[in-house]
Each structure stands twice: as structure tokens, then as C-alpha cells.
Amino acid sequence: MTASGNRGPYAKTAAVRRRVLEACVDAFAETGFYGATMKDVAKRAGISHTGLLHHFPRKEDLLLGVLELRDERGTEFLASAKVLDPTADPIDILNGMIAVIVDNELQPGLMELHCVVSGEATSPNHPAHSYYAERYRNLRRFYADTFTALAERNGLRPSIDPETLATMTISLINGLQAQWLFDRDSVKVESAIRQFLSSVIPGLPSDAFA
Predict the structure, then answer these.
(1) Distances (CA, A) of 49 to 34, 41, 159
(2) Lowest-pLDDT range, 93-102, 114-123, 127-136?
(3) Domain for residue 44, yes or no?
(4) Cα–Cα distance measured from residue 39 to residue 52, given in angstroms and rounded to the nearest whole number
(5) Rounded distance, CA 193 to CA 57, Å?
């Protein structure tokens, strides 16, 4: 009975925190970390400023919560696309990553958040600096491992270094995402990524990643 009675408050608290973080995605996406205010986030979430401080005492706590939420969504998509399976075929892994980028990240609020906050976070003093530095290290390692596996199967152009290609791939994706925010009708993120990967994997047509 006690356990059952406790579920209500916990569920309500989790729901409020989730609503705050969703509101924070929009706020940070529009004005960046420095431009957003706690009062604005509270208003967007439909709670009092005092109520917001109860859940997130500092704006830095809000930012970390938003980044964790983004990572949770990404991990769910990665798992559903079987990208996290180390035994998977490298082509299947790249296919899964494309699906994650298109299905999970090409959402206006999240994409704007990423572009704005990651740009601000290049400053070593930004609260998300370490987060993004580690995120990019992990992404480079992930793509480098995938391209290395392809090279070992003679599936990669021999003149291309897997680690350099990993950096190029991430740069392409980031650039396409930023351009997509400016012109969502003309910029075809998925098509551009598929054509790029097909250009470095010999004999592989762009529709192989489908």
C-alpha cells in the first residue's frame, strides 16, 4: 500500500521535470544557453519560478538535464536501429546511423538546440564544453572503428584514412544539419550523406544505404 501510494508523487515529479526539459529545449534553441532565463523556462513549462528552482536549482542543471534527455532519445534510436551491436555488418551500422540522424535528430527544436549550444560550447568556460568534447571524441571513435572494419574487408578506398574519414563524416553531417535549419525544403540531409558514403565505399550505389 505504501509503495503504491508513493508512485503518484514520483510520477508527478518525473512528469514535471520532463515538461520543464521539453520547454528548455525550445528556450535554449531560440536564445542559446546564455540568452535563456530561468523565468522564461518556468513560464514555458507552466510552473512557477520557485517550482522550477525546486527541480533545477541552477541553469547549468537544466542544460545537463536537456543534454541527458537528448542522449536518452539517441540511445533508444541507436538500439532500435541495431547500431550498438559490435558484430553487425559495417554497412548495416552506417545505415542505422543514417536512420538515427533522420528520424531522431532532424526535429527543429532538438536540431536548433544542438547547433546553438554546441557553437557556444566551443568556449572552455561553457558548462557543456566537456560534454561536447567527449561527444565528438566518441563519435570520431565510432565512425573510425566502422570505417576500419570496412577497410579490413576491402570495402573502403585505400587512399582514405578511417580516422580522417570519421572527422570528415561528422563535419559533413553537422554542416548539413545547420543548412537544413535555414532551408528545410532544399537541403536533403539523408540523400547527401548517402551519396558521400557511396563515394568512399567502392562499387556501392547510394541506394545501398536503404
Answers:
(1) 18, 8, 57
(2) 93-102
(3) no
(4) 8
(5) 41
pLDDT at 179 over 90: yes
Place of cell 561536447: 132
Does 65 reside within a domain? yes
Burial status of residue 162 (CB atoms within 10 A of its CB: 0-12, 13-18, 19 or more): middle
Report the chain's mean pLDDT, rounded to a whole number: 84
Task: Tell me the CATH number at 145.
Answer: 1.10.357.10
Burial environment of residue 50 by CB neighbours within 10 A (0 to 12, 13 to 18, 19 or more): exposed
- From residue 39, how far is each of 28, 112, 167 by CA, in Å? 13, 21, 39
Classify burial at 40, counting beta carbons within 10 Å of its beta carbon; exposed 0-12, middle 13-18, buried 19 or more. middle
Residue pair 172/193 in contact by the 8 Å Cβ criterion: yes
Which residues span the domain enclosing 157?
A: 60-208
pLDDT in tens, 186-201: 999 999 999 999 999 9
Q: How many other CB atoms are there within 10 angstroms of residue 201's CB atom? A: 20
Q: What is the pLDDT of residues 152-169, one digit of tens each?
A: 988 998 888 999 999 999
